[in-house]
Amino acid sequence: MIRFLLLTTLLSTPAMADEIWVTNEMDDSVSVIDTTTLEVIAIYPTGERPRGITTSRDGSLLYICASDSDAVQVMDPTSGAVLHELPSGEDPEQFVLAPDDRLLYIANEDDAITTVVDTRTRKIVTQIDVGVEPEGMAISPDGRVQVTTSETTNMAHWIDTETHEIIANTLVDPRPRYAEFSPDGAQLWVSAEIGGTVSVFEAATQSELGKISFAIKGVQPEKLQPVGIRFSPDGARVFVALGPANHIAVIDAATLQVERYILVGRRVWQMAISPDQTRLFTTNGVSGDVTVIDLKTLEPIKTIKVGRYPWGVTARKTD
Amino acid sequence: MWESFVARISAVIAALCAAWLGTSAGAATLRIDWLERQVTPPPVLSNLQAEPGDLGLAGAELGLGDITTTGKFTGQTYDLRQTVVPPQAAFLPAARAALADGARVLVVRAPAADLLALADLAQAQGALILNAAAPDVALRGVDCRVNVLHTAPSDDMRTDALAQFIVTKRWTDLALIAGTHPRDLAFADALHASLTKFGLTLRGEKTWAFDANMRRAAGAEVPLFTQGLPDHDLLLVADEPGDFARYIAYNTWLPRPLAGSEGARPVGWSGVVEQHGAAQLQNRFREAFGREMLPGDYAAWAAIAALGEAATRAKTTDPAALRAYLLSDRFRLAGFLGQPLSFRDWNGQMRQPIPIVTERAVVALAPLEGFLHATNELDTLGQDRPETRCTAFGEMK
Question: Which residues of A touch B334 (CB under 8 A)?
Answer without folding.
Answer: 151-152, 154, 174-175, 193-194
